[in-house]
Structures are given as C-alpha cells and as structure tokens.
Amino acid sequence: MAGNSFGEQFRITTFGESHGEAVGVIVDGVTPGIEIDEAYIQVQMDRRKPGQSSVTTPRKEYDTVSILSGIYEGQTTGTPLFIILFNKDMKSGDYSEIQHAFRPGHADFTYLQKYGIRDHRGSGRASGRETAGRVAAGAVARKLLEHRGVSVTAYTTEIGGIRCETFQEDQIEQNAVRACDPQAAVRMIARIEELADAGDSCGGIVECRIRGVMPGIGEPVFDKLDADLAKAMLSIGAVKGIEFGTGFAASAMLGSQHNDGMDAAGFTSNHAGGIIGGISTGGDIVLRVAVKPTSSISLPQQTVNTSGQEQTIRTEGRHDPCICPRIVPVVEAMACLVLEDHFKRQAAMKA
Amino acid sequence: MAGNSFGEQFRITTFGESHGEAVGVIVDGVTPGIEIDEAYIQVQMDRRKPGQSSVTTPRKEYDTVSILSGIYEGQTTGTPLFIILFNKDMKSGDYSEIQHAFRPGHADFTYLQKYGIRDHRGSGRASGRETAGRVAAGAVARKLLEHRGVSVTAYTTEIGGIRCETFQEDQIEQNAVRACDPQAAVRMIARIEELADAGDSCGGIVECRIRGVMPGIGEPVFDKLDADLAKAMLSIGAVKGIEFGTGFAASAMLGSQHNDGMDAAGFTSNHAGGIIGGISTGGDIVLRVAVKPTSSISLPQQTVNTSGQEQTIRTEGRHDPCICPRIVPVVEAMACLVLEDHFKRQAAMKA
Amino acid sequence: MAGNSFGEQFRITTFGESHGEAVGVIVDGVTPGIEIDEAYIQVQMDRRKPGQSSVTTPRKEYDTVSILSGIYEGQTTGTPLFIILFNKDMKSGDYSEIQHAFRPGHADFTYLQKYGIRDHRGSGRASGRETAGRVAAGAVARKLLEHRGVSVTAYTTEIGGIRCETFQEDQIEQNAVRACDPQAAVRMIARIEELADAGDSCGGIVECRIRGVMPGIGEPVFDKLDADLAKAMLSIGAVKGIEFGTGFAASAMLGSQHNDGMDAAGFTSNHAGGIIGGISTGGDIVLRVAVKPTSSISLPQQTVNTSGQEQTIRTEGRHDPCICPRIVPVVEAMACLVLEDHFKRQAAMKA
Amino acid sequence: MAGNSFGEQFRITTFGESHGEAVGVIVDGVTPGIEIDEAYIQVQMDRRKPGQSSVTTPRKEYDTVSILSGIYEGQTTGTPLFIILFNKDMKSGDYSEIQHAFRPGHADFTYLQKYGIRDHRGSGRASGRETAGRVAAGAVARKLLEHRGVSVTAYTTEIGGIRCETFQEDQIEQNAVRACDPQAAVRMIARIEELADAGDSCGGIVECRIRGVMPGIGEPVFDKLDADLAKAMLSIGAVKGIEFGTGFAASAMLGSQHNDGMDAAGFTSNHAGGIIGGISTGGDIVLRVAVKPTSSISLPQQTVNTSGQEQTIRTEGRHDPCICPRIVPVVEAMACLVLEDHFKRQAAMKA
Question: Binding of FMN: at which residues (chains A, B, C, D) (predicted)?
Fold first, then answer.
C-alpha cells in the first residue's frame, strides 16, 4: 500500500492534511457488539490536543470527534468505524513565508523530493495533526483491550536531560509534561519554558507500560510483537529510537545477568521487557522511545529555498517547545493498535 | 498473515526449523533480467555461518544454498526465486535435556504458550538458523540495490562494554568480531574468549550505514522508511532496540543543535540519520541496534520445567558467546530487503 | 483485513451505512501531480444515483461528493484522497417493518448470523448505497487511466430475457437502461415497467469493454488480471457470475476454434477476452457479469422473523425494479480500480 | 505482492517452473496440533497427476510430496509447512521448437511482454504444473476443514457439449472424467478420444459443492466469500468464467422466482448458491467454472515467432485433450484454501 494504513486484522487508514478541511480515520475489523461512543474517544483526543498548558502550543485544533459509521444504537456493528475531525482555526498566513523554503528538521525537502509537489500549509500531511486520527482509532482499540483486561500507560521519563527519579503513576496526568515524577516535572517545565523564551526546543524520552497481556501474543518470525511495536512507534514523526526492557543497556550485560529466570511463581525478572522470541511472556511489556527536540524553533536557521538559494529562516507560528506530553497519548494509541491487532491474529491462528 | 512473510512489492517468505530437514525462502517480486547465481548468494551465507572463528560456535551448518526456481540461463525471470539450505550435522541429542524445561532467555516458554506445542530441537523455528533464509534473500536484494547504486554495510561498534574509537571500514571483515576499529576488536575478542571460558556470554551494538539512496524513498505515514527498518531489525531475535542518527542522544539535544541545516551543497549535518518524515534525505542512512547477550550459556540457571517444577539448567551444546559478528550480515540483509521493497513502492506511486 | 479495502498499490477503503450519516472512501496510492476535481467525480456519481428515470427508484440520495484531503491547488499530492457523501432523504420509517424479519434475497439473515447485530435501516452496510464510495474512487482511477490511454465502458446487453442485437456505443447513455441496442432498450424498459407495476423485478447482463491496455499487465499466478477483475465484480452485491471473452461458451468449443492465432498484425481473434495466462494481450479486455433480479419486491414473500416464526413480507419502500442501469457505472468503477492497481504493480515489478 | 501468494490468515506462496528443479509451496497460518502427513496430501496429488487414464497425458511428473518443515512428531506446530515436489521426466527437447514462437492459447506472448524474458521450457511458470503446489496446500486446508465439518467436492458436469443428466456422487471418482453421471461419462470419454486422435481438444464445465459451512462466513464488502472464490477459480489457468447458484440463469429470472424464501426449517430454496451479501447462508455453496479447451493441440495453427514473422506451429509433446478431470482437484483445493482462510478471519473478527 501507499503507507496510510496500519494493522492487519484490526486495521486503520488515516487521511487529512494539517490545514485541509478535516483529518480522520477508518477503523476496520472492530469486534461487533461493543459499546463505545464519542465521549469515550474524546477523552483521549483531549489528552493529545494542543493548548493544554503553558508548555504546549496555544493553537486550538478543536479536536472534536464525530463517528459517522459503524455504530448502531450505541454498539459497534462489525462494519468500519469512520471518525472525522474537522479542522478549524487554521492560520495559513503563518506558513506563507515557508512555502518556498525548507525548514530544518521538517519533511519539507523530503516530501517535495518524493512527490514533486507538496501542501506546505501547516506541514500538510507531515504535520503532527495527522496523529489525531491515530489517537481516535487507538481509543477504539483501547476499549476492546479493556474487555481483554489489558491496560496501556505511557509517561515522560526524561526531558531536556532531566530524568524522573521516581515512578508515581497517579501523578502522570497531574503535571503538564506527563512525567512519572512530579518533582522532576517541575524542573522539566521550568526548562521547557526557559527554552521556549529563547526560541529553542528540546526532546525527551517516553516510556510505555502494557499490562495484562496473556502469554502467547505475537507472530514469529517477522511480525514479532516487539517488531510491530517498533514499527508503530517509529512511524511517529518525532521518534528516533526505541528499546524494550533493558534495551541498549543489554548490550553491556552478561547472559547470566540478562536472562530472565523462572520459578514456580513465573519469571523472576523482566529484562526482556515482556517479550521473548517476539511473543508476550505474560509480564509487563515495557518500551521506551527517544523523542527528538521539536523541529520548529524561532531561532534563525540556515537553509535553502526550493531554488537552492541559501537563506536563513525562523519558523514562526505556534509550536510545542517539547512534544513529549502530547506524544504520550499517541504512543499509547499506537501500542493499543498493535496489541488489539495481535490478539485478533492469535485468535485466527488458533481457530 | 501468520508472520513468516516480509515486504510488500519485494516480498520474502521463510520456512524451516533448526533441526528440521531444511530452511529456506521464497523471494517474490524480483526484477526480471538480473544476473545472479548461487555463488553470489553464498558469499553472504558464509559471513553468517557458524564456525568462522574462535568466537563463533564450531557447529557446522553447511549453509550451501541451492536456487531451485526463478532463474533461467543465469538471469532472473520475474517469477519467484526459491532458495533452500538442507540441514546437516544436527545433534538433537544435545537438546534432549531441555525438551521439558524452559531455557532462560529463550523462546521455549512463549512458543509453548502460543502454539500449545513446540519443536524443541535446536530451538526449532525460534533458532537463529531461521535467519539463513533472510540472508539468502537479502543477497538477492543486495544485487538489485547494486544496480541502483546503493550499498549497505554493517559492523560491530561495541561488545561487552568495549567501544570502537575509530571507523576503519576496510578493517571490518578483517577481524573476527567485524568491528570497525581493529584495536578495539582485539580487546573484544579477548573479552569474549574470557566469558566463553566462564560459560557466560555478552552483547553489543551493531551499526548499519546505507549509502547511495536517492532522496524520496519511504512511504509516510505508517510505512516510513525508518519504521520499516525498525520492524525489520526488531524481527531479529537478539535485537532489543534500535536508533537512527543521533537516536537516543537526540532526547537530550536542543532543536537548534539537532536540526540539520542546508546550504547550496545540501545538508550541513546528518543528525536525522538520513531520514526525515519517514523519507530518505539523500544522506547516509545510519542506524544502530542493541544486541542482547546470547541466551545460551553453560552456567547453571534457575528455571522451571513444563510441569512448573523448579530446576536448574545448563544450556549445553555449541553456541556463540557473542552473536554480534554473525548478526552483522543479518542486519545488512534486512536493510537490503526494506530498501529494495521501498524502491519498488516508490516506482509504483510515481507510475 | 476485515474486507473493506480493495487494491494493493492503488487502494481504497470504504465506510458507511445506507441510513447512517455518510458514506465515503479513502483512496490511497494516487499518483501525485494529477489534476482532478469534484466535478469530474460528480459525473460518475450522477450516473449511479437513483431517480434518473422511470426505471430507477425515485429515492434521492443527493450523491454530492466532497474531497476533503489529498488535493492542493487542484492537483493530487500523493497523500490519501478522502471523498465523502453525506446521506439525506433517509426514510427509515420505510424499513421499520423489516427490523425483525429477514427479507428474501437480502443479507439480513447472513449479517445477523455473522455479526450478531445489524443496522437494518435501509440494509445498513449491505445496501447498494455502499457502492457510492466505489464509484467516487473509480472516477479517480479513471482519471489516472486516461493518462495511460485506457478507456473503460460498460453497458447492458440483456434485461429480463431481452437481448441486444446490435452494439451502438454512442447510444448507451442515451437510453434509461444503458443498453448498447436502442431498439432492445425500448422493449427492456417496457418489460421493467410492466414488472414494476406487478410488484416484481428482473435481472440482466452487463458487459464491460476495456480498451488501450498495453500487453503485460497482470500478476501471475494468483493475482491474474482476470482473477482480480472477477473478485472485483463478484464483490458487487447483485452479481452472480462473470465470464471473460467467450466465457462459458468456450466450454463447448474445440481448441482449434478457441485458440487465438497471431499474424504480423497481432492476434487474429480475441476469444480469450484480452487476457492470457492472467496477463493482458493488448487486445480489448471483455467481460460480462450476471445481474440477479432486485431482491426488493412488493409482492408478498414467505420468510421468518428473528424469532424464527414464519410470516409473509412485502418489501415496501422505493426500489429499482432492475438494477442493471445503475450497476453499469459500478462495474466500470471496479474495472478502473483493478486496472490502475495493476499498472502500478507492473511498474514496481519492472523497477 | 508480485502475485504468488494467496490468502490472508491461511496463506500460501508457491514457486517453481514446469521444467525447473522443483515446484512447491509454503503454507503459513496452519492451526497447530493437527495431525497430518504426506500420505494424506499424496491422495490429492494423485488425483491431479497426469497419466491417470486414456484421457490424460501419459507424462509422468512423479508428484511425490515431501514436507520439510512445520511438522513435529506427526502434528502441525503452527510454523510454516513447506511442501516440495521435485521435477523428473522432463523432456525439454519436446519444447525446443517453440522456444522462439508463440503457441496460440498459451501465455508465451504475454509472459515475454510482461517480463522481457521467459523460461519457455514446458511453459515455465505458466504451466499447469504450478497447480501441484496449490493441491498440496489445499490438502492441508481440507484437513483443517474436516475438523470444522466442512466437505468440498468438485466434478465434471459437461465436456465437449455433452452434459450430465444425473448427479451420482459415488460415481465421480469411478470414471476417467470425474463426471457425476456415469452414462454421460462414457460419451464424454469417447468424444475426448475422438478429438485426441484428430489432434484437437475440448473444454467443459466443472461444478463444486461445499457442504457444512455455518452461516456467517465471508467478509463484506470487498472480500465477500463469493468474490474470493471467484478470484481463486479465475486464477486457474484454463478457467474463463464462474457462476454461483443459478448464476447467469438468474439474469433471466424474476425477483419473485429467484429470492430464496425461509420457513421455520430454514431456506426453502438455494438459488443464491449458499452465499448472500457475500456471507454464507448455511446452505450448500454451489459454483460452476467454465473450462476452456486445452490450448496445446497438434493441429497446425497460425502464429508468429519472437521476431514477428508468421509461421504455422504444431504443439508437440504430451498433453491433455481435456483438462476437466485434472482441474477437479485443483478447483477443490482452491475452494478449501478460501474457506479455511475465511473461517480464520471470522474468528479474528469475533475475537
């Protein structure tokens, strides 16, 4: 395919440009007879939307979801769910300056190289706005996973070099950066505001913990559960890396240290991060993604225009100085999509 | 699918268990009229095979490839290439002890949980032996990529905590660990031998550099080039993480530091690792994978048997104390498969 | 997938129920830089819409298309086209009577068996209304095929046992049944009106002729061009059979009669219908589909309700006594979708 | 994909040329824990093999199957089954004469147009020999379907214009043409032998009846059960058409005649052929395929060579004057593959 679909038995297809008329998603393969409504989905949309705090862009996208198909009398029917969000408050004027220049860190150059044409307004299809459809679809998957006893929780563990020292799950949604350590959160927010004032941006690390997945989920050899989760996460624009369990640290460990032993109660450790041989072990699935600093900064940067002439550019407009807090619900959504898909694939294999 | 196929327009499907009669691969979507023979493929097989040095298992797999279809008078015909390797020198006796126990770090437990049955001999389908088919198919992709002016080179940058300080490409195939720094290689080998004597194992980091990819390759939004490369690499058993360009280090950088500027000559840096917005920039594509320590160690480990009773286990048999040198050709093969597939998808989109 | 997507490199995904809020389609894999607008698509929608003549239902669906993404300044950008049609003039009251009974010939029973729940309003997802999205997407494919010099034309050749004796292509759109023989059309219309008055319906045969396809299009062995066309046509609700070239008549011919010979000018006959070995010959691709009589009739019929109790039912509401004239544009749309997809796949194979 | 795979959750990929070293198939998505062996598969292979009677080619292909993976101690493990048949008794000399000429009715011309190169020996990949892998995989699907209580039976109903008047299921495998009417079989065989002596060939019609499929199998809207069966059957080289239930005859029926009513006992007729709205009704699934006369005849035919020069050609070698009896097991195999795939997809949807 051309790349706008994800999943196999639980499959989503997204559409829409940042400053087009709407963005949205078709969700195919939804189990019938499940109660779900727009309010349930809206909860996740609101976690992703801009303007939530001092550290997110004041831009208002009005992420109000409408379900136009697949629901009858409050229940899913097994036919495709279509979810749409109409765009509003688009100030294309903000972007006119960059119509003919390539913003450093953005996909302006690569899109033009690939397609020979691009909708530059608000980054068009390459905008983070595209993830709105993912989060809406992810909420549908989350609802199905709830029926399976699976929960998915992501949170910031590091921003601008400041790391969380504690894991206080109940505090995650209580601070603007969705950090698992409220003390670290305070320093992270201060750092972000300082950088925002300087016209700069920073990155961070987001961790995701998936609980309640029975052993046996995942399809060897290519569609390993961690392989599909890796693809899902790297398909998020700002993500530059992923690791599972001990991850990169495993490269410096000994087999005698890294191997997860077992006793009558189950695994005695979880260095593997809940997946061995591409199949869930029954333990928590733990992954971390590296989030790059937001590309849009107002500091002057060296670039060229579409004619190849050098120029400096300042990315005006309203942007997130750190995207971590808004990536958290996107990471959760992608994890939900992968898990629900693999649960259905396991059912097909066993049938 | 059930997970044994990879790729879309250039697609491989593998089969085979470690101690079954054979392993192999069907390669579909091969450009017709390309000259390729078994000798060309064998070169890559020999880089993957065991018994290459003191730091690899002495086990002989006789990785001799036979092409049984898709070639006529030395050229590809556009029909599926079928490549098979018959298994030999299988000492299933070595594995009888672990028929009823779960080896720590291995997929014994998860396979049994998933399928309710498993071929324990030599780890069955979960064995690294499965990658033989990938390397054979990857060689076919490599040949097609040569015609596109693309080269793919992987090498070890760290083993057991010992890091390469220099990048000497011509030295990679000259040392047993395929390290890019011959001095570091000497210390890595000593470390591996020391651990092997102790019945332990270690991990490392393998980097892959892809040169010559024109700008515009990769399919947003889900099939980003880095997303598909991430899936490809995480589908390799021992890989626990991946990063592109500055990777995890980007999480501590500022936007003003990380953004790759441009001048009349092109990009002035490559922090992105050759991919922006999921599409190739034209610069080198650079990725690194975290390789966990080999699970098979002869030190006693705590585990349970299939009846849930606790026991200690020593994984006997012949194993690699560090898998990095043999993962290098597998990483290259997977990268070749992803690239060739995306070149074909770009052609379809433009058509 | 769950079955709501079609195509591989040119791929559509449809959504929507007959009496839901909207129906529509996402078209992925559209060649960038192509000029297309809503007016071009509307022409095909108007050929499919109800209320075109005395032989089609007076129901008004207001098939007005809106393109909400994938177009920038009048040209395709290579990102997904999203096309939506909002539903209006829905008289669900018409259907309340059949909420708890299974209409003979309709998918009421099978949908309930499959999903355990159904949206009975206007047949929900099983309604012919679903084909609106196909026709809209087919128009996009048609535009791309125009650039390839390919034309697709379907027409009625038989209705209610009345057959066309002549082929007058310029007359097809000039009569209410889209027959290629205007004299036969007069008799067909009279027959349909007679049956409509009697509360009954009839079927017919629609032929499709595809011109300008170069030799070499089609992917052996499973994705043969005729195999994919057959799937495409049988995915249309009322179609019960398909044949290519001489079709079923070939079963009574001799090899010496059926084989298409060649001379310096090319093939001397086209019994194969333009496809041999699943690959286009360069000749016209000719196929015929069998259209069953419309299931909705107002004559009393024997059926059971959802409790299994026997009852008679009259399908009230506004229906087409013969669906052939409105299936013509759907057949063309599906043919366009298959062709464009295979042109792109051929480009990928050759790349 | 390039077209050599079929199915989604139960997926096969075939390889091999007629005069290459082997043909075979990888079967992915096999339910684990099922007892199956080569002898079970061989039964179906023997029904497809040449040399079974006076009306089939004396060519011996030695269709002996070997399963090289996916089985452990007599049971499937859930990993890919690999089944191979090595080619023998290849008389390429028979074909040297047609290396540079296009045989009427064969894919010689279209393959060369598509790929720019072709393996002409025994028709290469376009040979009926390719179906050996399908029949082997179909046998695996048949075994899984047995556990579901589903049976698939195909038989000849017409050859050379001679039609079966009776349906005697127990007689199908008792006559050389696999006709359901032994009296008609006698005349069919005489007709075939007469045509063979004259150096000509003939076609026929094969019907397939699938029993025991529960209601609810099939995936609207594009992957309707009949749509996928149509693709499966049209992917068989000699098939030129397909119809379900009343099929083309439905085009001349009235709605009041064609609609299948229901009473307390279920459907009172089966004009639909067991599928409504693309979903199984629970009744027998009945389809018929049109088989063209064998292309290979020894009568002189007009053609051109690869240089475009006109010439006459006689297709020497050993061929089937009528392929119907050998297509019967292929039709059954394809039906089994579609059904097993859809059963697994239904399980995924419901999960």
Answer: 125-127, 277, 292-296, 318
Q: How does pLDDT run across A289-321, given as a tens digit for each residue?
A: 999 999 999 999 999 999 999 999 987 767 899
Is the Cβ of B158 closer than 8 Å to some Cβ of chain D?
no
CA distance B32 to A245: 43
Known binding residue B132? Answer is: no
Which residue in this structure is represented by tokens 């009005």? A62
Question: Quick check: D125 and B9 CB within 8 A?
Answer: no
pTM over the 0.90 mark: yes
Q: What CATH number did the domain enclosing B171 receive?
A: 3.60.150.10
Q: With CB atoms and an 8 Å threshold, state whether B292 touches A232.
A: no
Pinpoint the alpha helices (H) of chain B.
38-48, 108-115, 131-147, 182-197, 225-234, 255-258, 324-350
Copy the structure tokens of residue A275.
Answer: 């997946």
C11 touching chain A per CB within 8 A: yes
A36 three-state secondary structure: coil
Whether the link from the prior residue into A286 is cis, omega within 30° of 0, is no
Handedness of CA B342, B345, B346, C1 (dihedral sign): negative
Q: How far is C55 from chain D (nearest CA, A)?
A: 15
Nearest CA in chain B to C348: B344
Walk along chain C (351 residues) and give the pLDDT tens digit of each residue: 789 999 999 999 999 999 999 999 999 999 999 999 999 999 999 999 887 877 776 666 568 999 999 999 999 999 999 999 999 866 655 566 678 899 999 999 999 999 999 998 889 999 999 999 999 999 999 999 999 999 999 999 999 999 999 999 999 999 999 999 999 999 999 999 999 999 999 999 999 999 999 999 999 999 999 999 999 999 999 999 999 999 999 999 999 999 999 999 999 999 999 999 999 999 999 999 999 999 999 999 999 999 999 999 987 767 899 999 999 999 999 999 999 999 999 999 999
Residue A105: strand, helix, or coil: coil
Substitution target in C10, C35, C38, C69 with the highest count of A β-carbons within 10 Å is C69
Strand residue runs (E) in D88-203: 151-159, 162-163
Task: Give the A window 165-194 contacts with B, CB below 8 Å.
Answer: none
Question: How far apart are the C-alpha atoms of B135 and B133, rounded to whole Å?
Answer: 5
Structural domain tally of chain C?
1
Stretch (H or E) spanning A257: helix A255-258
Q: Which domain holds residue D121?
A: 5-350
First-to-last alpha carbon distance for chain A, in angstroms, is 28
- Cβ atoms of C69 and C84 within 8 Å: the answer is no
Say whether A245 counts as a known binding-site residue.
no
The answer to whether D312 contacts chain C (CB < 8 Å) is no
Whether the complex's predicted ipTM surpasses the cut of 0.95:
yes
Distance CA A65, CA A42 (A): 6
Mutation for testing the B interface, residue in A13, A117, A240 having most B CBs under 10 Å: A240
The answer to whether C277 contacts D232, with C-beta atoms less than 8 Å apart, is: no
